[in-house]
Amino acid sequence: MKRFFLLALTLGIATAGMAQSGQGTFARKVRLGFKLDPMISILKPQESGVSRNSSKGGLSFGLMADFNLNEAGNYALASGFNVVLGGSKLKYDAGKGLGDFKANPAEYNMKLTYIEIPLALKLKTTSPNDLNFWGQFGTYFAFPVSGRADVISLNQTHDRVNILPEMNRINIGMLIGAGVEYPLGETLTGIIGLTYQNGFVDVTRNAKWDDGKVNMNSFALRLGVYF
């Protein structure tokens, strides 16, 4: 995890440097910022024999990049680079789950880390020196870089089982969000909002888990700043 925090910090410093340099054309067409989103992560099974025991508190952090599509800046293509820490607790009946634990019912406390690239159409009001509202709709592409599970089976706990090889290598889904922006100074703009993401892809490889489709959804509080 340390390398992800270091990467995000490095990119954040570079972003601030580019923004502060105030290159006219770039500044008008691209807005760069940093965000930190506390979230609730939910793994949602679609097949009997697997049930969600609880959701999990998580975190998403990284860079925001808005590419303005008009001079006024009220239409933009919103993207970025995020690290997402999520997961959930799932209960598996006997005969389902990973091979080492399939013989008996088991509970999996999954802790998943993704690198995510969002891509959305963003609409916002553009009143100067005033509160502005924004909304966005689009998709995202997420790639797992870490997957661990604490497995409880027959009252025995198996800590930090590596499940990354048994996860699908990409997750794609829908994202929607809305919120407000407010000026913090001459060059800084604060942002707050709510976002929802609905994964379309099975998180766990069905051939390995025999668990049908398990998608990953999340609700997040968007907290960020544009430079």
SSE map:
Blueprint (H helix, E strand, L loop, with lengths): L1 H20 L2 H6 E16 L4 E5 L1 E13 L6 E18 L13 E19 L7 E22 L2 E7 L8 E13 L5 E11 L6 H4 L4 E13 L1
Antiparallel strand pairs: 1-3, 1-10, 2-4, 3-4, 4-5, 5-6, 6-7, 6-8, 8-9, 9-10
Protein name: PorT family protein
Organism: Chitinophaga fulva
Keywords: Signal
Can you put this structure into words, describing what you see?
A hairpin with a 6-residue loop joins strand 3 and strand 4. This protein is mostly beta strands and 227 residues long. The protein has 3 helices and 10 strands. It starts with a helix and ends with a strand. It has one domain (31-226): Porin (Beta Barrel). The protein is 13% helix and 60% strand.
Structure in a nutshell:
It comes from Chitinophaga fulva. The protein has one domain: Porin.
